């Protein structure tokens, strides 16, 4: 796969706006997110401050955004992004299926509710992972726990059962998981991740389970967890007026960068982030010629 100019993560108003602007400026792009766009938009009864669309419903706005993307032939990649790595002159965008490359990245992931588990950040990369498909080979023959926030986590847990010595699965949703018999399903709430140099156990409200690894498979991740080295600011991504983060070539916009959580604000910031990415690419091209 050829390296894209811009990878955009998120299909809310910020991500859609960034994608439209990037396409208008002639850049190649990858847009990661749901084809249904934002659940938050769909649930809105009425939106009264979006210019030109008085009293529009959330469903109407979502349809309008989807139609705009379709008219501009902007495709959405629905693979969940598990990590974004700054590689110097490009970014590696890792999903469960593949790793894509982009010269710049725009984070439009929205706000992820809830705090990380105690021990989660401390043991990230030392027994804590967000992608079972990516890191399963590291746990061949070992004991692991998989925490799934939705049924979308089940295929990764099933794959882990083919590799790991034992798999404990904790579903955080209703319904019966469709998993191989080798996977032990426990309906308990994770409370903390324990360890020394590496992970040694997962603590739940029902007790401690000795494991070598804990896989946290959430539908969404906080940007600071998604991108190693990214600076945060009170639960949001730290950016300047150009939507630039502390990582050169990485931009963020929308709810991910702070209040107010407004659709029009998010769309405007998506436009700014895309223009800043275009400017960054142009400056890098000029520098390469000098």
UniProtKB/TrEMBL annotation:
<dbReference type="InterPro" id="IPR050097">
    <property type="entry name" value="Ferredoxin-NADP_redctase_2"/>
</dbReference>
<keyword id="KW-0285">Flavoprotein</keyword>
<dbReference type="InterPro" id="IPR036188">
    <property type="entry name" value="FAD/NAD-bd_sf"/>
</dbReference>
<protein>
    <submittedName>
        <fullName>NAD(P)/FAD-dependent oxidoreductase</fullName>
    </submittedName>
</protein>
<feature type="domain" description="FAD/NAD(P)-binding">
    <location>
        <begin position="5"/>
        <end position="167"/>
    </location>
</feature>
<dbReference type="Pfam" id="PF07992">
    <property type="entry name" value="Pyr_redox_2"/>
</dbReference>
<keyword id="KW-0560">Oxidoreductase</keyword>
<dbReference type="GO" id="GO:0016491">
    <property type="term" value="F:oxidoreductase activity"/>
</dbReference>
<dbReference type="InterPro" id="IPR023753">
    <property type="entry name" value="FAD/NAD-binding_dom"/>
</dbReference>
